[in-house]
Amino acid sequence: MKIFMATLVTETNTFSPTPTGMAAFTTGPDWHRRDASRQPPAIANIPVIAWRRLGEADGHEIVESLCTFAQPAGATLQHVYEHLRDILLDDLRAALPVDVVLLFMHGAMVAHGYDDCEGDTLARVREAVDPACTIGIELDLHCHLTELMRASADAIITFKEYPHTDAGDRAPELYRICTDAAAGRVRPVMALHDCRMIATYRPTVPPVRGFVDRMKPPFEGGWNIFHTTAVSSEFASPASHLALRGNGRAAWPGWPTDPEMEALRTRWFATPDPAAERAVAAETERRAFDQVPYVSLGQIQQPTLFRTAVRDIVPANAPFFWGLRKV
To answer: Which neighbouring-strand residues pair with 137?
Structure first.
């Protein structure tokens, strides 16, 4: 898998009379060309360091573009934004084809002539790459979310903390979503809704602290839930009981990796007779009660009606049309 990554960050205060020029992006310690991920960590390159580390560990090819960060100020000069954006796009076109694009931007960058720099950049990236390419972007918590951004990206991840202490945590989150999507293991879906609320929300104190904790992945102390339904006949044996799988990312979203559970399933397929099948199934049940891969929240009975002329109905908890006769 080939992964392209870049950083173009500034937070714009449109009330400020001080424009953001080229020197704000290129004269500080956060300006790098193609090697930011190999530099000591600073505010601008924390995500790309994580993306290179993860990508190389997974055996992927990493292609790096510019990395730049300008301190918050007024609107960026038009030619400055266009120049930096076009460096990113030129590097991207030179790297094609790519499977994943990972960007780190602020989310509230405004330039003269561009009210939505992140949306503009994402839209142009989307135009440049193959339709199958997965595009992800990490944003500051104090960002705008526009329909152009949503339509152009496959995944948008924002900081969850203020002060912004979690840029390094969000980067692996975005990486996993995008690489899993590129591999066909997940299909991210996003929606945008305006809550029409303006207030001061402090992530360090309740009640917002609780909201932030619940939004985090389970390994960071948060939680999530995957719910589904199944016909009970599907759970009649280890062959079709998908909830008793331990094949991790190849299973349902969030499912555990449990080699012992998978080994039991393999043994069940290899059993020579019904008695051996029952013995392995009993071991599988004990393992399930020990590991608890899923929780049943209830059962329903679906009534089934048959004409009186139908005979030899198989008594079961679901309709099976085997060997029916009409008299």
So the answer is: 103, 156
* pTM of the model as a whole: 0.72
Largest CA distance in the chain: 89
> 158 Cβ partners below 8 Å, 6+ apart?
107, 138, 139, 140, 141, 143, 170
**pLDDT tops 70 at residue 47:** yes
Three-state DSSP at 285 gives helix
Of 69, 64, 51, 38, the C-alpha closest to 168 is 51
Confidence at residue 218, expressed as pLDDT on a 0 to 100 scale:
67
Q: With beta carbons less than 8 A apart as the criterion, state whether 78 and 114 touch.
A: yes
Neighbours of 24 (CB within 10 A): 21
Q: What gap in Å lies between CA 52 and CA 36, rounded to an integer?
A: 10
The total of other beta-carbon atoms located within 10 Å of residue 318's CB is: 11
Residues 6+ apart with CB under 8 A from 177: 136, 155, 157, 186, 188
**% the chain with pLDDT above 70:** 98
Question: Closest by alpha carbon to 49, among 154, 171, 149?
Answer: 171
Q: Which residue did the predictor score with more confidence, 244 or 31?
A: 31
224 — phi, psi (to 5°)?
-150, 175
3-state secondary structure of 278: helix
CA neighbor of 73 nearest in space, from 25, 117, 118, 8: 25
Cis preceding-peptide flag for 207 (omega within 30 of 0): yes
d(CA 252, CA 98): 27
CA distance 86 to 71: 21
**Token pair for 105:** 């931007």
Interval 187-230: pLDDT, tens? 898 888 888 888 888 888 888 888 888 777 766 777 677 777 77
* Cα(30)–Cα(206) distance, integer angstroms: 34
Residue in the block written with tokens 């009640």: 207
Residue 219 has what pLDDT? 62
pLDDT at 9 over 80: yes
The pLDDT tens digits of the residues spanning 163-182 come to 888 999 999 999 999 999 99
Amino acid identity at 243: A
